[in-house]
Structure formats: structure tokens, C-alpha cells
Amino acid sequence: MKPLVAATKTNLLNTKKILSLTEEGYRLLDEKRKILLSELSTAMKNYSALSAELSKTLEKAYTSMEQAVVRTGGRQVEDLARAVKISRDVLLVENRLMGANIPVITMEDTGDPPFFGPFGSPLIVEETIRHFTDAVSLTVQLAEKKTALVRLAREVQKTIRKVNALEKVHIPAYQQLINAISNRLDEESRESFSSLKMIRNRIRT
In terms of Cα–Cα distance, which of 18, 39, 20 is closest to 149? Predict the structure, then answer.
């Protein structure tokens, strides 16, 4: 292989330094990849568990609502629902994790109590409101987990591409360049030695 740069000792040393830095970068990125994959696996488990919990909570909520309608009538359930005054304050912040912005969402219920319906409302209605309130909270948490999951997956893909590029392209290229420069320097050294030997032989004769 013909060197892409001049075959000099300076270029050889510089290329070795670049290779060393590239290999160190590869090790760091590979470690980052492993950490991100671990975080991604945990995020997937959390998302699946939370999704299942939300499904169960919604099932309870709709079942409870159907029972409330049967026991108290649809019109009364609507009136009781309108009497509930709940507002929610949502705060979103982001934490940096290995290059990915991971959202953290907090939600607080505010408003005029009672949150679970007027005094004396049927218990089944209060249970229904409680279930739907829990479902809203779980939905916010699920959105947080899904966003984190998507961003972690995206960062994993980017990191894997960089690791593969270093491992399969850049590092082999620098290794080949070092070998080419070294071979060329060795060849020049042999040529110089041979020429010097011929000159000495001529001088002696």
C-alpha cells in the first residue's frame, strides 16, 4: 500500500498518536454503548410495566363508571362530574444521560376540594373519579417513559454507528497507513544501506 502522506518518521509518529486517540475514543464510545443499552433495557421494562398498569386502571375506571351510571343514572353522574373542580400543574425538566435528554414530568392536582365529588355523592362515583384520576397520572408517567425510551433508542443508534465507523473504517485505515509508512521507511533504509555499502566498496577498490 502506498502511503497517503509522505513516508517520514514525523508522519509516522503523528499517525500513531492519532491512532491511539482514535482507539481511546472507540473504547469510550463502546462503553457508552453498553451503558445506553442497559438503560434502554430498563426503560423498556418500566414502560411495559407502566403500560400494563395503565390498562388495568382504565379497565377499573370504565367498569366503575358503568356501575355508577347503572346505580345513579347517567344524568346524575354527569352532574357530579361537573361539580368536581380539579386542575393540574405540569412541570417538565430534562436530565442529560449519556448524550440523551431524558424528560422528568411532575404533576400536581390543584383546585377546590373535595376532589372526589360533592359531599354525600355515591361511593361508586367517588371510586370512578379516583380511578380516572389515577389513569391521568399514569398516562403522564407513560408519556415520560415513552419519550425517554425513544430518545435513548435514538442515542443508542447514533453511538452504534460511531462505534462501527471507528472499528471498521477509521482504526483499520490508520493501522494500514502506519504499516505502509513503516514499510516504506524500512525500504528506504535498506536502499540507503545498500547504496552506502556500494559506495564503501568502490572507495576501497
Answer: 39
